[in-house]
Amino acid sequence: MTNDAKDDLALEALFEGARNNAPGLSPDFMARLEADADAVIAKQTTPMAVTTTISLWARIAAAMVPVSGLAAATLAGVWIGFHVPSSDFADGLAFGDSADFDVSAFLPAVALSGFSDLEVDG
User: Fold this and answer.
1) Each residue's pLDDT tens digit in the chain (122 positions)?
2) Deepest of 90, 100, 119, 121, by most Cβ within 10 A of its Cβ?
3) Residue 76 to residues 39, 64, 93, 105: CA-CA distances in angstroms?
4) CB-CB contact of 102 with 112 (8 Å)
5) Do 71 and 79 touch, CB atoms closer than 8 A?
6) How far apart are CA 113 and CA 99, in angstroms?
């Protein structure tokens, strides 16, 4: 354990020598590399634009996907709105015995009692 300082100094001297003698690329290699890159660039061609035509029926079918989801949701809402079963349905939503329920049945964390005391100017 006493030789740690000596080992650190010797190791640091080796690292310093490696930093000072960093190998570089030879000018001959750089010339060959540039010539090879220029040859590859010269061989490249501009890709041709691909044109595709989509039929009118395919466009209509593609447009129907989001429209059909919206239509289904609308019809489901209308059906639920007009065909609500008896008050058992309302009792189940209100979580109680009474058929009277309001927004607080759906949002129990929101206290809406303060809104009944509001006065309307007019």
Assistant:
1) 566 767 788 888 888 888 877 778 888 999 999 999 999 988 887 777 788 888 999 999 888 888 888 899 999 888 887 776 555 555 555 555 555 555 555 655 555 555 555 555 54
2) 90
3) 65, 18, 18, 22
4) yes
5) no
6) 19
